[in-house]
Each structure stands twice: as C-alpha cells, then as structure tokens.
C-alpha cells in the first residue's frame, strides 16, 4: 500500500492545498483541494472516497471529481462516511441547488455516486487493504482512519482535539508505523483551538503522552501564516517524539 499526500494544509495559498491523500491509485482519504493536482487519468481511477467529516476543506473537490469523471466510469464512486456526514452532503451539496444529485444521474439504477455509511470501529477491506474508522472529537461528527496493509499501519487522526478514545484504538495497533496528527493553531491561539476542537502545540503534547508506541509522527493541518511558529513550538515542546511537518507529495509505503 502506498499513500501519497495530495494536500495537508489548514488553508490555501501558493503551494498549499487542503487535506487529501491518495491510497495506491484507487482510494482517496478526504477530498480537499489537493485532489485538483491529479490528472484526468488519475481521477477516473478513483473508486472509493473515505471522508473524515463534512467540513469544506475536506470535501471541496468531491463534487468536481464526480462531475469530471462520472461519464467515463462503469460504476459509481463510493463515498464511505458517517451517516451524519452523508446526510450533510445530501442536504447541502448534492441537492440540485449547490450541485447536482449524482446519486440520481444519469439514473438512480446506474448513478455516478453512491454512499456507504460507516461507524467508529468499522473496517472496510478493499483488495487486501483494511481501512478502519477511528474516533475523532471535532465540532461536527467526525472520524480518523487506520490504513492497514497487513505489514504496517498508518493512523490519520483527521480534525480532532483532546480525544482519549482515540488512543485506546491506536495503542492496540501492533503494526503501527506512522501517525499523522493535526495541529491547526499556535499556542497563542489555544482558546480558538479549544473552541473549534483542534489542537495547538501544548494540547498536542498532552495528547502524545497517551501514546504507548513510537511511530514516526507527522504534523498536518497547519494554518497558513502560522506554519513556522507552530512548528517551532511543536519541536520545542514535543522534541521527545521527533515530530516533523507533513509535506505535499510525501509518500508512505505500508
């Protein structure tokens, strides 16, 4: 299993794109603006999209993806998400006002888009790869994911703040190699982080204290304008964990 970072920023700007990962050639984990760098040939090979939650920075390219390649595919793109996320997409995006309802195009019997609900702890097995939903603590219903090739696992926390439930799952993963965890704000924005249910460096250190393993740790979802400061604070306070900033187009082999 190969995981390629398409976008990992908490905002946009030159060289920045919001959250999305390409798993091998056929699975997206989130569908933020990073999806826009894929070619048409790459886009039409995507069969599955696993969403952490319904916030725009994680779903922005999903409507464009379906619209762009639906007509050349022989089966729908399947979106896996919490029921509340699916309801949000159906109510506010694929509602004929913001975007067409592609679960009914060209007809309900052969649509370009299909939804498959999941719950925390559920695992989807796709061609020898297991993708499991993990608990997240955000302002809207949300999950993180474990990507498991059998040989190794990667955990992506998604958007989350202090989250004791997550570590019970993570510490039970025997083949954990990589942990990608968000830190959206610097320490001076701690109150904003708490209100919006994100992490800042001081909260990150408290969370990592629950980690009983020593995977490689990568920081994602940094806010433009505070990237350097936030990483300085992380490196200073969490040096024992050797965290590094996640980079666009970075690849992980599992």
What does this structure look like?
The structure is a single chain. The protein has helices spanning 40-43, 56-59, 62-69, 83-92, 164-170, 190-196, 201-208, 227-237, and strands at 2-7, 20-23, 27-29, 48-50, 77-81, 113-117, 123-126, 129-135, 143-148, 153-156, 176-182, 216-220, 244-245, 251-253. The strands form 2 sheets. The chain has a 7-stranded mixed sheet. Strands 7-8-9-10-11-12-13 form a 7-stranded mixed sheet, with helices on one face. The termini are close together. The longest helix is centred in the C-terminal third of the chain and has 11 residues, at 227-237. Strand 5, helix 4 (83-92) and strand 6 (113-117) form a beta-alpha-beta unit. The chain contains 8 helices and 14 strands. With 254 residues, the protein is an alpha/beta fold. It has one domain (2-253): Ribonuclease Z/Hydroxyacylglutathione hydrolase-like (Metallo-beta-lactamase, Chain A), CATH 3.60.15. Helix 7 packs parallel to helix 8 (227-237).
Topology, please?
Layout: E1 2-7, E2 20-23, E3 27-29, H1 40-43, E4 48-50, H2 56-59, H3 62-69, E5 77-81, H4 83-92, E6 113-117, E7 123-126, E8 129-135, E9 143-148, E10 153-156, H5 164-170, E11 176-182, H6 190-196, H7 201-208, E12 216-220, H8 227-237, E13 244-245, E14 251-253
Parallel strand pairs: 3-4, 4-5, 5-6, 10-11, 11-12, 12-13
Antiparallel strand pairs: 1-2, 1-14, 2-3, 7-8, 8-9, 9-10
Helix pairs in contact: 7-8
């Amino acid at each position: 299993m190969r995981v390629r970072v398409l976008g990992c920023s908490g905002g946009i700007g030159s060289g920045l794109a919001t959250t999305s990962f390409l798993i091998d050639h056929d699975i997206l984990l989130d569908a933020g603006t990073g999806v826009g760098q894929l070619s048409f040939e790459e886009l039409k090979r995507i069969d599955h999209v696993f969403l952490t939650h319904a916030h725009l920075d994680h779903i922005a390219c999903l409507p464009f993806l379906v619209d762009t390649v639906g007509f050349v595919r022989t089966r729908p793109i399947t979106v896996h998400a919490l029921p509340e996320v699916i309801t949000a997409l159906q109510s506010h995006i694929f509602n004929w006002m913001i975007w067409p309802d592609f679960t009914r195009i060209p007809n309900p019997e052969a649509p370009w888009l299909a939804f498959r609900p999941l719950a925390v702890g559920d695992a989807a097995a796709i061609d020898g790869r297991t993708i499991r939903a993990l608990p997240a603590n955000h302002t809207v219903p949300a999950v993180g994911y474990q990507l498991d090739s059998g040989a190794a696992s990667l955990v992506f926390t998604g958007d989350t703040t202090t989250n004791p439930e997550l570590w019970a799952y993570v510490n039970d993963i025997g083949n954990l190699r990589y942990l990608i965890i968000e830190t959206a704000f610097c320490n001076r924005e701690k109150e904003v982080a708490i209100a919006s249910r994100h992490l800042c460096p001081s909260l990150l250190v408290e969370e990592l204290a629950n980690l009983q393993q020593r995977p490689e740790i990568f920081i994602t979802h940094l806010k433009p304008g505070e990237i350097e400061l936030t990483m300085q604070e992380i490196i200073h306070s969490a040096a024992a964990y050797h965290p590094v900033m996640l980079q666009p187009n970075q690849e992980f082999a599992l």
